[in-house]
Write a structure and sequence with these properties.
The protein is α+β, with helices and mostly antiparallel strands. Helix content is 45%, strand content 20%.
């Protein structure tokens, strides 16, 4: 037994279980023990043993000689959504915004230095975006991330800057000073923009969903082609949707 296992066997087991569950990537319907061992670096014997526990508790399901993520994870994920009823409350407004603009609408929250997409209503005229429900993206490179950061405690912005500002799209803000200045404007106007910062040819407009103290609980956005969607023209609709949702939530 390794020294770490003797000192903290529960922590090591939890870390290994987490590694197995997070080894699944978008598009992975099923994975075998050999592939999971390769992705996690765990011994194949340990993988077999831990998979048995995860299957027993419904976190994974057997699929022939492989396993897939279990419905129990979906149930837990639904409970993890921040704010009671946030997604359900927002969905009608997101649908209306999508119908009015025919572009893709997002609802996202901030988790550490990244945004997590809680809901996405895709538009017929919008580009094929890499975003997905439950997916993550660097906050500094998205309109939703900037909308939330502009209305969050300064410590959250400092954490994002300290983690680095990697380039994601052709025009990603990678200089802390530029990001700070843009967030000041976002705070004043209530609208944030992503102009090919998250991907080439894509523009996005976002506005924060605020609580009673003025802090952002989430953000709503519209994404479309940069040569088709005029950001300033759709900004009032995004702002109105976010303000209405802010008043709706307890």
């Amino acid at each position: 037994m390794y020294a770490a296992e003797r000192d903290d066997p529960g922590g090591v087991t939890a870390a290994r279980l987490t590694a197995l569950l997070t080894a699944f990537a978008p598009g992975d319907e099923r994975l075998g023990a050999s592939e999971l061992a390769r992705r996690t670096g765990l011994p194949k014997s340990s993988v077999h043993r831990l998979l048995g526990h995860l299957v027993t508790h419904g976190l994974l399901e057997r699929d022939g000689g492989a396993v897939r993520l279990g419905l129990k994870l979906f149930e837990i994920g639904q409970l993890a959504v921040r704010g009671p009823g946030l997604v359900d409350a927002a969905r009608p407004y997101l649908a209306d915004l999508r119908e009015a603009t025919r572009n893709t609408v997002h609802l996202a929250v901030l988790e550490g230095t990244e945004v997590v997409y809680l809901d996405i209503v895709r538009g017929p005229d919008a580009p094929a975006l890499p975003s997905r429900i439950g997916g993550r993206f660097p906050a500094h490179a998205t309109a939703v991330g900037k909308a939330i950061l502009a209305h969050s405690p300064g410590s959250q912005l400092e954490a994002v800057i300290s983690a680095g500002l990697p380039r994601v799209g052709p025009r990603t803000l990678t200089a802390p000073g530029l990001l700070r200045r843009q967030l000041t404007r976002v705070c004043e106007e209530g609208v944030a923009y992503d102009r090919e910062e998250s991907g080439a040819g894509v523009v996005c407009v976002a506005s924060p969903v605020l609580d009673g103290s003025g802090r952002a609980r989430a953000a709503v956005s519209i994404s479309g082609w940069s040569n088709r969607m005029r950001a300033e023209r759709v900004a009032p609709a995004v702002r109105t949707t976010a303000l209405t949702l802010s008043r709706t939530l307890p």
